[in-house]
């Protein structure tokens, strides 16, 4: 996955008297040696760019590469003049910068703070677990009431008495 992108911007100078229906943009890698065939054109997504747009992002480009971009407008008269721009992407040093940022202050880092923080969190979890276990134990082991009523009978229901002779 590449995070290298280009931002294409344009201004409309002349519409030919008809409103623009959409813009189209495409790009390809530029090869230095003239004996190599040029790369295929890749359409920028969406294929039909809104007529009110004046810029679009082009994603998934390679670092340190030169690209040729083309943009043109379309209206009821057809396609307008193709404007071509050449641009070179920069070196992708994002991962290097991220690593440098994550390791900032690592030489002065004291692990005792992390040990203390983990101990406090673990202690809190143990206390909560013990409290939950105690509450469940108390709920499950409540003594039954000492009346003659069966736990299945309700207070208003008739009960059968059995006597032994």
TrEMBL record:
What's the domain of life for this entry? Eukaryota
> What InterPro entries does the entry give?
FN3_dom (IPR003961), FN3_sf (IPR036116), Ig-like_fold (IPR013783)
> Which chain regions cross the lipid bilayer?
113-137
Query: CDD domains annotated for this entry?
Result: FN3
All residue ranges annotated as the Fibronectin type-III domain in the record: 1-95
Could you tell me where the Low complexity compositional bias lies?
145-158
- In this chain, the stretch annotated as Disordered covers 145-165
| Keyword terms | Membrane, Transmembrane, Transmembrane helix
Q: Which PROSITE patterns match?
A: FN3
Name the UniProt record assigns to this protein: Fibronectin type-III domain-containing protein
Organism per entry: Cuerna arida
């Amino acid at each position: 996955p590449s995070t290298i992108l280009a931002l294409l911007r344009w201004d409309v100078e002349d519409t030919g008297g008809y409103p623009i229906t959409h813009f189209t943009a495409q790009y390809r890698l530029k090869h230095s040696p003239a004996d190599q065939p040029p790369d295929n054109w890749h359409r920028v997504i969406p294929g039909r760019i809104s007529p009110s747009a004046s810029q679009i992002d082009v994603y998934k480009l390679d670092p340190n590469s030169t690209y040729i971009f083309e943009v043109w407008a379309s209206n009821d008269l057809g396609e307008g003049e193709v404007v071509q721009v050449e641009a070179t992407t920069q070196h992708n040093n994002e991962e290097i910068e991220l690593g440098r940022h994550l390791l900032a202050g690592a030489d002065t880092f004291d692990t005792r703070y992390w040990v203390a923080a983990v101990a406090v969190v673990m202690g809190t979890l143990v206390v909560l677990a013990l409290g939950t276990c105690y509450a469940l134990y108390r709920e499950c082991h409540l003594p039954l009431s000492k009346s003659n009523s069966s736990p299945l009978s309700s207070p208003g229901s008739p009960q059968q008495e059995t006597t032994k002779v």
